[in-house]
Amino acid sequence: MTDEIKRIDEKPKKGRTVLSDTAATTAAPTAAPEKPDTKAGADNRTKPGSKNGTTGKAKPVSKAKPRGGSGGGAKTEKTEKTEKTAKSAKAAETAKSEKVANAANPKMQEMRKTVLRLAGTLFVITSAVALMLGGVNALTEKRIEQNAEERRIAAMAEVLPGYEAAGESWSDGVSTVTQMTLPEDGSVAWCVSLVSAGFGGDIEMSVAVEQVEGVLVVKKVAIVSHAETMGDPTSEEFLGQYAGHPAGITLGSGENSIDAMTGATVSSEAITLGVNTALEAVQEALALGAFGDNGGSEVQG
After folding, report:
1. What is the pTM for the complete model shown?
2. Distance of CA 139 to the CA centre of its chain
3. Which residues lie across from 188 on neighbouring strands?
4. Residues 1-47: pLDDT tens digits?
5. Within the chain, where are the H helices?
6. Longest Cα–Cα distance in the chain
7. Residue 235, Cα to own-chain centre: how many angstroms?
8. Is the dihedral of CA 17, 23, 28, 30 positive or negative?
9. 213 — alpha (psi -120 to 50), left (phi > 0) or beta?
10. DSSP 3-state assignment of 37?
11. 273: nearest Cα among 215, 198, 223, 222
12. d(Cα 170, Cα 175) in Å, to the nearest integer?
């Protein structure tokens, strides 16, 4: 009876699971696994025949890949869009600042308008003045030339009274030579008009040249205009010394020399240079046959 009760008790009850000692041990709570020794793990991965590896070689560690194939491109587009937005915002802020600054400085705007207005007015005035001066010059240019010709004719009459111009004048660019004749006896002479640089400015003069025994000599000298302040270039006492002298006149002592004006050596030298230039110009004009027949006599050099 007792043995039968024990056998009944040993039968598994319905709805219950009888665990063996091994199963009970397995079903018990498992303790947290210990962290593997890194050094030992490394040794187990590298050593052939290790229990932790089947081939004895370490498995390559795969790198994490970004999710989605277009993730990088989307990020770049987003960055560019952000930069553009920032630039636009900065430009708008700058424009706003300038607008505020201009609105805050009405005096500066008024000054700019005033400057532009004055510049325009000045341009109009200067243009009008330039046009007026051009018109006046055009109207007076012929008159100026006419006055100069009248002075030259008056100077010729002064140095060669009674003579008349015969034909056209000849010029070498410095001196203008005009052949003159005396109606009473047909005598021939030449009047030379030129300008020489003096101490105070240009000295405009007229030199009458005649031929004496085949030699060109000075007949008379006249000063048309000058700006000299020392001495008197128009003095007959000084100018009369040139009469009868051929080319190559000098100041001082000598056969072909004259005395300079007191205190006006530079002016004296300028006038003497002009007289010599006039004699040489007549010599050149005759040598070139500028006036054709020169009276039938040969001019000596």
Report:
1. 0.55
2. 36
3. 181
4. 445 444 545 444 444 444 444 444 444 444 444 544 444 444 444 44
5. 2-10, 21-27, 38-46, 71-104, 106-159, 236-239, 265-287
6. 203
7. 52
8. negative
9. left
10. coil
11. 198
12. 8
